Amino acid sequence: MANRFSIKHQPGFTAIAATCFIVLYLPIVVLVIYAFNAATSTSEWGGFSLKWFQSAWQNTQVIDATLRSFQIGATAAVFSTIFATMAALATTRTASYPGLTFKYAAINQPLMVPEIVTGVALLIFFSRIKIFTGYSGLGYLIAAHTAFCIPFAYLPIRARLENMDLTLERAAADLYATPWRTFRRITLPLLWPGILAGLMLAFVISLDDVVITEFVKSGGQDTLPTYMLGQIRRGITPEINAISTVFLLLSVAIVTLFFFISRKHD
Amino acid sequence: MPDKPDRNAIEVVKVSKIFGSGEGQVAALDTVSVSIRENEFFTLLGPSGCGKTTLLRLIAGFDFPTAGEILLYGQDIAPLPPFKRPVNTVFQSYALFPHMTVAENIGFGLEMLGKPKAEIKARVDAMLKLVKMEALSARRTSQISGGQQQRVALARALAPQPKVLLLDEPLSALDYKLRKEMQIELKRLQHETGITFIFVTHDQEEALTMSDRIAVMSSGKILQVGSPRDIYDRPSERFVADFIGESNFLKAEVVGVSAGRATVKLSSGTEIPASLPEGLVPKGKVTIVVRPEHAQLSAASPSASLSGTVENIVYLGTDTHFHLRLADGEPFIVRRQNSRGTGDGIVQGGKVGIVIGGDAAQVLKD
Question: Does the interface predicted TM-score (ipTM) exceed 0.95?
C-alpha cells in the first residue's frame, strides 16, 4: 500500500520514460550498428565488417580534420577556461554593484545570441582583418571557439566559487599569506574541480561546433564536424557512421574521465 | 590570579566604523576607545549587532576603521592588511583548509612566514602536543570531529606565536559539555602560552568564567570595562545589569553623596547606602540595582529596607527564588541558597521584609 502514492508508480510513467529513451538512443544505436555494415549503403545490411573504420583510419582528410579539431579544441578550451576563471573571480569576489547583472549577460552572451548571427558577424569581421594583415591561419577559428566556449567554462567555475567559504581566504590572509599566495594555496586548489569541469566542457563544445566553424574557416581548415557535413552532401557511406561512432566513444570517454576526476576531488 | 603587567598590547583609540552611506548609514562602532593589557584574557561581550565582531575584524585587519587608530604595542596597525599584522584569529566556523591535513593546517602560518622546514616541523609537533592532537596529525580536517576541529583551529592560530590571539565566538558551534571543557582548555592555553587573548561572545556565563576583564558592548559603544566581579557586582548602566545576570531595579532618590558612595531613599522611605559608578555625581531621582542573591528575606518589620508579598516560590535545587511584589507594585526577586532542613515559614501570599545590605545596592548612570 505504501507504493500507492509513490511518484515512481504512477500509471504511464514507465511508458513515457521508455519512449523518451527510445527516441533519444535508437537513432544513435542504429548509426553505430551501421558503422559495422559491409555494404556501401547506410540503410541495407550487408554483413559485419570493420572495413569502414579502416577506410576512415586511412583517409588522410579525416585524420587531418580530427587533428585540427583537437588542436582548436584544446587551445580554445585552455584560453576560454583562463578567461572564464578570471571572469568568475571578478564576478563573485566582489560585493554586488549596479552593472553586475549586465556583466553576467555579457559573459553569457554566446548562449543567447543565435550562432548563425555570431557566425555571419565573425565572417565579415575576420575577412576585414584577413585583408588587413594577410594572416589566414587557424588563429581565427581558435579565437572564435574561445569566445563561444567562455560561458560553458564559466558556469561550473562560478558555481564552485559561489559554494566556497570566503572565510578560508580570510584565514589564509590572517596567517600571513599575501593575496597571490592565498590564491595559489587556497583558492586555486579548491577551485580546481570547477576549472577541470569548465575545461572539459569547453573542449567538448568546441569539438562539436559546426555553424560558427563553417562561417569562419578558410579553405583546407575543415574540422571533423564540418568535414562530415561536407561528406554527407556528396552522399553518405558507412564511413561517416564509423567516424561518428569513434567521435561518440571519444566524447563519452571525456565525460567519464571528468566524472571520475571531479569525484576524486570531492 | 597572576599579576598582569600594565603594558598595553592593544589600544583602540576613538575608532568608528560606518557602513553604507547617506540615508542608509549605520555606525557599527561609534568612537570606541579601549586598552587591552598584555597577557590578559579580554572579552568583548554583547548581543548580536552590538559591534563586538566588527571591532575584532578591525583588529584582525579584515576591515578598516572609518576613523580612529588601533595601536599594537604603540604602532598604528589600522591601515595594514591582515597578512602584515602579527595577530591571528580563531574563526567561528574554524575555517580549516579542507584540502590540507591537520599538520599542514597548523604549519600554514609558519610556512607563509618563510620559516625553515625543520623549525616548522618542530613547532607543529609542539602545537599538536599542546592541544593533544598528536595522533591525528595526518588526518584531513573533514575526518575529525567538531571539538577536534576547534583544537586544530586554535593550534593553527597559536603556531606563529602571534602578539594577540583573536577568538570570534569559537565555542558557539559546540554542544554544552564540550563547550564547558573548551572553556577550561582555553584558559589553560592562555596561561601556558602567555599570549593576549581577545575573545568575542554573546554568552555572559562564558565571559564571566573565562575573562580577566570584560568590555560590555551595545549599539556600537563600550558601556563598561572591568573584571567579571566588577561588571557583575557594580554594573554602571541598566543595560549591563540587565544583560549579565538577573537584576532588581528600584527607583530611589539621592539624599547624600560622600567619598564615592551615596545614600538613597527608597520608595518605602528607608534610606540605604549605595555604591556609585566611577565619575558619577548623582542627584535627584535615580535607579538602583540589587542582585537577587545580595538581598535577604526577614520577617516583615520596620527594620527591613522594603516589604513585599510573596507571589511565587521557585525551588531550583541549589537555591530558591522568591518572587515578591513590593508595596509600590514593583516586582522583586530574592535568591537564597538552600541548605538542608530550611523550612522557615515563608509561604506564598505571606508578607516578608527585604534587607538590602550595606554593599548590595548600586546606583546606575541611566
Answer: no
